[in-house]
Amino acid sequence: MPSRHGRQARQMKLTGVAALVLASTALAACGADDSGGGSRGGGGDGGDIVIGSVHPMTGALAGVGGLMNGGAELAVADINADGGIEALDGAQLALAEGDSQGKAEIGQSEAQRLISEGAVALVGTYQSDVTQNVAAVAERAGVPLVIDVAVDDAILEQGYQNTFRIQPDATSMGEAGADALVAMGEASDAPVDTVSYIHIEGSFGQSVFDAFQQQAESQGVEVAAEVTYDGTSFTDATTQVREAAAADPDAIVVTGYYPDALLIANAIDALAPDVDAVYGVANGGFDDGSFPADAGAGGEGLLSANYHYAATSDRAADIRTRFEEEYGKPMETAAMLSYQAVEVIAEALEAAGSDDPTAVRDAIAELELDDPLLAFDGPIIFDETGQNENATVIVMQIRGGKVEQVFPEEFKTADLVYPTE
Amino acid sequence: MQTGAPGDADAAEQRSGGSRLAAVRVPLAVLGAVVVAIALVYAVGGRDAGLVTQSIVTGLLLGGVYALVSIGLTLIFGVLGIVNFAQGSMLSLSMFLVYSLVTSVGLPVYVATLVAIPLMFLFGVLVQSLLLNRLTATGNHDGPLLVTLGLSLLIVNVLLMVYGGRPLRVPGSVSGSVTVLGAIASYERLIAFAGALLVAVLVTLLLRRTSFGLSIRAVSSNTQGAALVGVNVRRVYALTFGIGAACVAVAGGLLAPILSLTPSVGEQFTILAFVIVVLGGLGSVTGATVGGLVIGLVQTVGALYLPGTGSLVLVFAVFVLVLFFRPQGMFGAAR
User: Fold this and answer.
1) pTM above the 0.90 mark?
2) Are residues A344 and A232 in the same domain?
3) Could you say which of A25, A152, A181, B230 would form a disulfide bridge with A128 (CB–CB 3.0 to 4.6 Å)?
């Protein structure tokens, strides 16, 4: 009898667990709102022009979120030091920080808070689902949102008038990735006939893969195997890599985030499949500054097609040096995009000569910003959907323990080695 | 009133009227089911045999890692009746502890693991004696649960503050791999697997062969009775939580060279560890080990047919089936 009693108690406890998890999530949300309200920047009341920044400052993505916030901060400081917004009598900018915690609903409430505190424009948010919600808030409030990082095509397919994206979308990255691979194969007399593709589940991996497959097949390249994995429980990539290699492809293409990319690189190193190239498309790992050291010898020669800061630009190099002095960490491409997003807004404020959100929105839509900090095809110009027309990917390769730009020619910092090793 | 009976599930089954046959029936049935399932995959699975072998080897090695995380949890859950939500974040904590010992003190990663074990043990003892004992003693069930939930938030955010959220890597471990029956297995994962088996054996011996193990089992089956015959219940609670934390330290040390370290890295194991503990039977170390291996196999071999999240669906399907036909878990005592 006593044991039955105990069992019931324990079952009740298990039921309680679920309820508590829900409750704790809700509590965390409330807590964030409170603390967020307390930490609002110096902007808003001092006559400064407030730009709202929504990034994951806590949670699993806090690392990159912090860097991106830093990038935006540095841009604001640079513009203020340079005399502020001249068209508005040297008005100073202020950055108001929001923390999405990596969650869509919290990003949404943070965006609402920043707008109600007087933000004239928003930058953010790194994740596609969070960006969807923030874009909806921005549209309703008539405040422009400049997306620094968020890849999903669907965000701009809503017909929003107030949302602009600097980086290429998933489809164009998949397509450009396929084109670049074919071009590199031809240029090196090792044409690509078949590829295997390993990608993360969900809209990010799937949309990049779909675009890549369509473009590759139109160029006569067969996608022999599609292998997917679940990003939340991925601790070993051996089976996936072996499955990809079993189709005997000329190249293995990989789309995923940093920890996944590292596991996959380790598994490829161990299995040593006979392929001409291992090629990341919109891959969060292969072209990250800390990847070569983490992957060791197995990282050498990996190729990656991605949007990237312009390693050939002196202006970008100067910003990166000062960022590292300020924050003690290398400035990854995502942070450079946040910097660029603030620049876009500042440029629009100059052009509009007004800090009215509607005027800023119109100015962004008309903008042509030369000398982008990213390796793009030309100046930043937004088309009628809000997408930067000249956004594109370039190909990087890990050479001698460093990420080098290798393709196309105009952005080259080192020679391409293809087939690798 | 505690119901888990760590280590003596077999004995309990004999007491409850079963024969010695009953004690081996369940493990044999589990083994049989696994062997039949694997044979089916080879025979009619329609997949390349080498690929299947690879997924089995990978699955067993992954299962070892799961077992390692679950053994600590099953002790805490089984003896103290505490749903330890901080298990995953304690795993992260030990991985970062090992990371610090490797990068700042310069110890090799497996030596650092040995250093981390007593530190985490102490951490566990302190958590139980300072934060949880008062609540556990009153028989309050929600209190400890909330405390561990709070503890996990605290650990994750302190780690975030100290180390930042960028993925870190423990440098300089044993790299390389061996080929087993045509399947690749890295040394690091083989070492983790061996470590899991070693921990399972040591904890089982501790529970069955030492007088301290006897007092743990006594407290587990009847707290009041144990107290009446002179067992210091609070001390047993504290030390048991300490042992649970020490198991996590081993898991953290062995996993550190394999995974990218982020403050939330351990949390992906929490849910699966609870599944494995309930699957294996509360408080059963053997159950946690076997459960870990089975879940690892189901997830990896299942991924050949249902890739990605699909393999987790299979894991939970197995879980539901076991709960339906054998609610006390594979190695739990019948009640």
Assistant:
1) no
2) no
3) A152
